[in-house]
Amino acid sequence: MNFTKKNFTLDHIRQELVRLEDSIIFALIERSQFQKNDIIYKCGGINIKEFDGSFLEYFLHELECAHAKVRRYTSPDETPFTTNLPDSVLPPIQFPKLLVPNNVNINDQLMKIYINEIVPKITDEGDDGNHGSAATKDCHVLQLLSRRIHFGKFVAEAKFNDPLLQPKYIELIRNKDKCGINDLLTNLAVEEKLLRRLRRKAAIFGAEIDGDGIPTLKEEDNKIPLDVVCDMYEKYVIPLTKVVEVEYLLERLKYYPSFVPEF
Amino acid sequence: MNFTKKNFTLDHIRQELVRLEDSIIFALIERSQFQKNDIIYKCGGINIKEFDGSFLEYFLHELECAHAKVRRYTSPDETPFTTNLPDSVLPPIQFPKLLVPNNVNINDQLMKIYINEIVPKITDEGDDGNHGSAATKDCHVLQLLSRRIHFGKFVAEAKFNDPLLQPKYIELIRNKDKCGINDLLTNLAVEEKLLRRLRRKAAIFGAEIDGDGIPTLKEEDNKIPLDVVCDMYEKYVIPLTKVVEVEYLLERLKYYPSFVPEF
């Protein structure tokens, strides 16, 4: 996470989010090469010694333990899915204080949507036995989507610091007017441009390429259906990011005017 | 790993390797967004409680522990970099016996080449502080390259089972003629086609895409230099795969004629 006083702007945050789109599309394509493998999502579907949950939950927790040991979740742009994570083996580092203290974490909601709405659209039905590979790719998509969605905290903080809009935000937050905050946060032109861009990116990165390295240019050959990525953003990623933004702003006022982002 | 009697053919193995190229290119692009962050590769570069090695080694071992618990390294197409891995928490599964028992593992060699030859070519010099992110992407590239290279065992087994060539292989193996085996394994036409294809894939998947979703089509904008992927394959991936093939074949004869691949 690299913000400085100079680049903690909406423009820079948006650049980060645009780059993250590529990573998310790559990760979805990687997951899509395996079948749905439903059993990995079912509690007790695969019998795991002394663990009560799904295979994906077990594996994600083990991965998050490895990441926690190297300090991943002390970074303000990382949000774990599981709890009871070990301490870091590294000395703590001081991140710039860009956000107010908050516990906004909607990963549970994201997990449900991912399993029920996204996996079925990018995979073929069936079980190809590649449970470990599928779960590995799932964890990767989930970590990226979580980062994308919780980046809403930075978006919200940057928008709140706009001197022209701050009085309006303060009023809406005081009234706990979630819809009003949501409307004020929304920039339809940005969203429409994003959706157009995503469809094109999905076509380019997901292109089926023949043995000579030439894209087949047939939409039905694309590694993931072309509409999946923009539908996923439109229906889930953008709305969930705004849930994070609104939740964050509701906590923001407690620290007003004492908190200003520090670098 | 999905081989059946019907698809354990050179053609099918090559299809797997062609798909793996996409994953490797995606992973290299993902690593390239962070600076070199040299400190993560140096023994003791980052101080880790009770661990004597580099940050990457520490993190890779922790990740491999998580993967070992879900049985990754019992699969014949997966080869760990680190040792002292925990047992799996899952019941063992019976993989088809496609390979003779062997301990061919050249991951140490791969690791050195990756750090010294590949990372410098895909990253910018410098330290951007994203040590955890860079190491995460490194592990991903390493796991994919390791899988690619050790797939040489399947390639070698399939080639050895060609009834026209088997007598020749047996003679060369008896004479421990590594160069002769290497020559017999080599198919220059396939290699040249592969290198051409890789350059094109690197151009497509690494394309810089503007805010509207249109590729800039400028080579210098590509997320990784266009020659890096084919150079890496030509200088390291193909030769290391052949090292694996030759090493595997040297162990193969002990089990001849008793072993035939079983599905």
TrEMBL record, chains A, B:
GO cellular component, as recorded: cytoplasm
BP term (GO), one: L-phenylalanine biosynthetic process
One GO MF term attached to the UniProt entry: chorismate mutase activity
Keyword Cytoplasm belongs to the record: yes
Main localization of the protein described in the UniProt heading: cytoplasm
Enzyme Commission numbers on file: 5.4.99.5
Amino-acid biosynthesis among keywords: yes
Alphabetized InterPro entries for the sequence: Chorismate_II_sf, Chorismate_mutase_AroQ_euk, CM_AroQ_sf_eucaryotic
Catalysed reaction, written as an equation: chorismate = prephenate
Keyword terms of this UniProt record: Amino-acid biosynthesis, Aromatic amino acid biosynthesis, Cytoplasm, Isomerase, Phenylalanine biosynthesis
Compartment(s) where it occurs, according to its Swiss-Prot or TrEMBL record: Cytoplasm
Record's protein name: Chorismate mutase
